[in-house]
Amino acid sequence: GILTADRPAHAGGTHFLLQLQGGFALPPADDLDLSLGYGVHFGIGGRMAGSRIRFYGLVGFDRASFEGTGTHAQTGRAFDVNRSYNDFQVGARMLIPIWWRIRWYMALLVGGSYLTGEILRENYVYSDTSEWSGVLTATTGFEVRWHRHFATGVRAELRWLMNGGDAIAVDAGQETPDEYRINILATQAFLF
After folding, report:
1. Whether this model's pTM surpasses 0.90
2. Measured in whole angstroms, how far is the alpha carbon of residue 192 from the centre of its chain?
3. Where are the beta strands (DSSP E) in 72-101?
């Protein structure tokens, strides 16, 4: 079966993972534009004897910055807005070989997100903030391990801000501040 079949020679003997990722960060609010997100994760792990399932403990940093324009829902006044999220997290990943050199994984991470942002009206800073929030990230992805030390793939992430939103969203007139962010990222892993 796929969980116990012999491993190809290129897939053995590594226990450390360094993954770089970058791609699209979907805006967490209507007044923000599509942006780029990127990050780096480091992991240590392996497999149990007789199984091809691998487990990794992870630590990671991810960043996404957004800009946009909007209109305050209550006052009708136009504004420019920018927000940046800096996420520091730890977690675990489970990886399963599917077929040939294709592998599927899922991960769950938890940590803190440091948010900075500001709202400007006619180039005047109307509101700015810097704050911390708890963040929980669920992710899944596929990768192709095309070399013993390299794997390339794609992943999707759902990030949940545990404090229920942020002060910039409130100042922008959102009745229900956004709690979720979604990223679609290309990945390049280095295995050693």
Report:
1. no
2. 23
3. 78-99
